[in-house]
C-alpha cells in the first residue's frame, strides 16, 4: 500500500528515543521529511543523519521557547508542517491518594499544555491547505487507568478529551486527529516502570516482566517498530476517514471493546 507520505513534512515531538523515534523512523521509511526533536542537539542531529530526509533540532518542548524553536526550525527546513506527532516524557509514578496540587498541575504542564501549543501553531496551516494529520502518542491508561500512574492517567485523559473535541471541529478541513495508545512496548520508559514496580514490591524485574507478559494475550511486549507502523498508517493519505479515534497497540492487553 502506498501511504502517500512522500514529501510530507512531519514534526515529531520528543523523538530522540522510545516511541517517538519509532514513529519518526517509520515515517521516514515512507518518504516523509522528518523533524527529530529532543533536548540534546547532538543526539537529535545524529539520529537525523541516519534517516533519508531529516533534520535534528534541539528543543525543550516544556517551554514556549523550545516549542517555537521546534516549529520554526521544521518550517525553515522543509516548509509547512503536514503531520504533527505529539509526544512527551512520562510523569513520575505515584498513587492517586498521595497526589498534591503540584502533581495535578504537572499533569497538565507535561501532557496537555505543550501539546496544545504545538497544535495551535500547526493547525491553521493544515486547515488552510485542507490536509493534515495530528497524532498523539498516549497510553492504554486513557481507556483503563493504570495502577500507580495517577499523574499520567489524569494528563493523558485530559489530552484525549481535548483531541476528541478538536477532531470533530476540523474534520471538514480534511485534518484528522487521533491517538495511538501503546500497551507494553519494549522501550526504556517501560523498563524504568518495570524496575520501579520491582523495587516497590520487593521482587526482581524479571518477575515483573514475566507477570506482565502473562497478562497480555500475545504473551510478549511489543516491538517499537510495530507501534511505528501503526502510527505511519494513521498519518497516511489512505487513513483520511479515520479521525477522533484512540487506537490501541497493545497485543490485546486491554480487554474492553
Cα distance, first to last residue?
A: 28 Å
Structural class: alpha/beta
The domain tally reads 2
Q: Which regions are unreliable across 5 or more consecutive residues at pLDDT < 50? A: none
Order of helices and strands: EHEHEHEHHEHEHHHE
Mean pLDDT: 96
Name the helicity range: 40-55%
Task: Provide the CATH topology of the largest domain.
Answer: Rossmann fold
Instruction: Tell me the name of the CATH homologous superfamily of the largest domain.
Output: NAD(P)-binding Rossmann-like Domain
Q: Just name the CATH architecture of the largest domain.
A: 3-Layer(aba) Sandwich
- List the quaternary state of the chains: single chain
Strand order of the largest sheet: 3-2-1-4-5-6-7
The level 1 CATH classification of the largest domain is Alpha Beta
Strand content: 5-15%
How many distinct helices? 9
Principal-axis shape equals: globular
Amino acid at each position: 500500500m502506498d501511504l502517500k507520505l512522500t514529501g510530507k513534512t512531519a514534526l515529531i515531538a520528543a523523538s530522540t528515543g522510545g516511541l517517538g523515534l519509532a514513529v519518526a523512523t517509520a515515517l521516514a521509511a515512507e518518504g516523509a521529511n522528518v523533524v527529530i526533536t529532543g533536548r540534546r542537539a547532538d543526539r537529535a542531529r545524529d539520529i537525523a543523519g541516519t534517516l533519508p530526509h531529516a533534520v535534528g533540532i534541539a528543543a525543550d518542548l516544556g517551554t514556549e521557547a523550545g516549542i517555537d524553536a521546534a516549529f520554526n526550525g521544521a518550517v525553515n527546513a522543509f516548509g509547512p508542517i503536514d503531520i504533527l506527532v505529539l509526544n512527551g516524557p512520562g510523569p513520575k509514578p505515584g498513587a492517586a491518594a498521595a497526589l498534591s496540587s503540584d502533581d495535578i498541575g504537572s499533569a497538565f504542564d507535561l501532557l496537555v499544555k505543550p501539546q496544545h501549543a504545538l497544535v495551535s501553531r500547526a493547525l491553521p496551516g493544515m486547515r488552510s491547505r485542507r490536509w493534515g494529520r495530528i497524532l498523539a502518542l498516549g497510553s492504554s491508561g486513557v481507556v483503563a487507568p493504570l495502577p500507580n500512574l495517577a499523574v499520567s492517567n489524569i494528563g493523558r485523559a485530559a489530552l484525549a478529551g481535548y483531541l476528541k473535541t478538536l477532531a470533530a471541529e476540523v474534520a471538514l478541513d480534511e485534518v484528522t486527529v487521533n491517538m495511538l495508545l501503546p500497551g507494553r512496548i519494549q522501550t526504556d520508559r517501560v523498563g524504568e516502570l518495570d524496575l520501579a514496580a520491582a523495587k516497590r514490591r520487593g521482587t526482581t524485574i524479571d518477575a515483573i516482566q514475566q507477570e506482565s507478559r502473562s497478562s497480555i494475550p500475545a504473551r510478549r511486549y511489543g516491538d517499537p517498530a510495530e507501534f511505528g507502523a501503526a502510527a505511519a498508517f494513521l498519518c497516511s493519505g489512505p487513513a483520511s476517514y479515520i479521525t477522533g479515534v484512540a487506537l490501541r497497540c497493545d497485543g490485546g492487553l486491554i480487554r474492553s471493546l
